[in-house]
Amino acid sequence: MTIDHHRPDLSDEEVDAICCGLTQNAAKVRHLRRLGLRVDRRPNGRPLIARIEWERVYGPSPSSPPPAASNGPRWKTPMGAS
User: Fold this and answer.
1) Which of its termini does the chain have fewer beta carbons within 10 Å around, N or C?
2) With helix as H, strand as E and coil as C, how does the chain read?
3) For residue 18, what are the contacts with CB-CB under 8 A and spacing of at least 6?
4) How would residue 2 be classed by pLDDT, with cut points 50, 70 and 90?
C-alpha cells in the first residue's frame, strides 16, 4: 500500500486497511464513525474520509498548546522596577 500525502482524502486501499475484515461499504462507514471520524460516502457507496480528518483524530498530538496571544495590558512589572 502506498500513501499519497498529497491526496485530500484517504485512498480505497487505506480505508480497506483501516477496516480490515469488513467487506460491505455500510459496515465500513459504521466502523469508521465509531472510531470518531466524520465519514461521507462516494457516489459508489464507499466511505470518503478527508485526510485532515484522519490526522485530526489519529495524527501526532502537539506536545503543548501554543500560548494564547494577548494584546491586553501587562500588569506585572519586573522586580526592582519602580
Assistant:
1) C
2) CCCCCCCCECCHHHHHHHCCCCCCHHHHHHHHHHCCCCCEECCCCCEECEHHHHHHHHCCCCCCCCCCCCCCCCCCCCCCCC
3) 10, 31, 32, 35
4) low
| 28 in Cβ contact with 44 (< 8 Å) | no
- What's the rounded Cα separation, in Å, for the pair 10 and 79? 55
> Which residues, 6 or more positions from 41, have their beta carbon under 8 angstroms from its beta carbon?
25, 29, 47, 48
Q: What is the C-alpha to C-alpha distance for residues 61 and 65, in angstroms, rounded to an integer?
A: 10
**Residue-level pLDDT at 64:** 63
Cell of 5: 500525502
The C-alpha cell at 17 is 486497511
With CA atoms as reference, report the closest residue to 5 among 46, 38, 50, 35.
50
